[in-house]
Amino acid sequence: MGLISNFEYDIFISYAHVDNVALTAQQQGWIRSFYDHLKQMLDRRYGRMGMVKIWWDDKKLDGTKLFDESIKEGIEKSAIFIVLNSPGYRQSAYCQQELDLFHQKVQSDNIGLQVSDRSRIVHVLLNNIPYEEWPQPLQGTTGFSFHDGKEKEDFGDLLEADSKDFIERMRDLRDGMWELINDFQQEQEEAAVKPEVVSNAFTIYIGEVSDALRTSRKRVVAELEKKGFKVITGVPPPDEVEAHRQATQEAVQRSNLSVHLLDQYPGREIIGAPQFWYPQKQTEISLQSEKPQMIWVPSETDFSAVEEKEYQRFLENLETGEGISKAYEFIRGSKSLLAKQISDFADQIKLMEVEKPKQSDRLSVLLDTHLNDQTYAFDLGKALLENNIQPFINPQEDDPRKNIELLGNRIGQVRKMIFLYGKVSKEWVLERMSAALQLIITRNYPIEDFVIYMAPPHKENDDISINQKFLKINIVDNSEHQILDRAGIDKFLNVLNTRME
Fold first, then answer.
1. Residue-wise pLDDT tens digits, 158-212
2. Same structural domain for residues 237 and 299?
3. What is the rounded CA–CA span in Å between residue 86 and residue 19?
4. What's this model's pTM, rounded to 2 decimal places?
5. Domain of residue 341, residue span
6. What is the DSSP string of 91-156?
């Protein structure tokens, strides 16, 4: 067993055998020297022989041999995968099969491709291979260079084993591997001390994500579990389409809330289902259920930059609500606030469950806010729920005229509109109100009135004024108080309830 729990080997070294051919009978192969130096340096770093378990294959395989079962087993039982990239590696179907097998394995295990901010696939360049020729799983990595190439056009020959440059690069690699193994162990220790979750805990299903969001998802899961939520992840794979559908449906049904984290990368493609990716398919399956659903994308995501056009249309439709009958929360937000957004939404759902008998009489409002003020908006929404008012929170971007169709769909579900005027500019609020008013007039939405809620930072009483005759507009100024206090809530509730008469 290796240093990293649940793995027999800490490191698997993947290389082309042509790179291990010795120039003379008296020399050993370069890969053999690489392995010996790495093992010895890690042993010295840990202060004990054999602490780090490294798998490498010294058999001479050619293209006529079937994929070796012992190699497959070594890959399955290894925590980290070192790729020794060279022209020989790129030409070897065998090497590509090793890399693909490990890449697929980490897509489906409960750890993912990244540990903290480090990839479990470690890229070592034996020659100066152009970036555009790197295998896809190596895209986005920086790599450790073991060649003497200086300029972009240089081929870069292997550094001689035992040379000064070779030893210096080996030290860099040793330090990188030591930090990666330590991060791996730390994550495992944190997972081992997760609080015990009671069987009746509020359950959140978080769907499959792209590689770029795996670290964020792990961090969010840990934060939610610390708050007492039960979290379901790890569905799927299976690769078979029907088995995947059933597994996802079962996970969604066991949950109280379904959460889907999406970005511009579609993630792993489902085998046998071209142009369908696990994150997308799980989102669509959840949209077919009656369970509450939150869909989140990073605030900076530019849908127009998405390369896969089918996935691009999917994201755009989610944001506008086009062709989707189910109500769901669509949020553009920052990763640092993600766990809070999910837990706040879960708290709203819990309150709604408690107050179900009263829901037929419940006032519904749309709380329209800028992304910069959405944390305050969630706190305000929670206060409304506790006072039998159903809020729908609509965080938006810098462009107040963007996503007007989504705004229209949400206006149709409520009786009042609240515009949160906090960190955002006055012009942004006025532009949002103008857009909403135009939708109400053209579509005949039954909105009773507008409310402008002035949140921190401080604003003067006459900071904003509206002169129009179509709807009455009330202004609630709570910008003096950084914390949402009882007096401010009561003042706000009084405005809302008075207008109902």
1. 999 889 999 999 999 999 999 999 989 888 777 665 554 445 689 999 999 988 8
2. yes
3. 8
4. 0.49
5. 196-354
6. H-HHHHHHHHHHHHHHHHSSS-SEETTEESEEEEESS---GGGS-GGGTT---EE-B---STT---
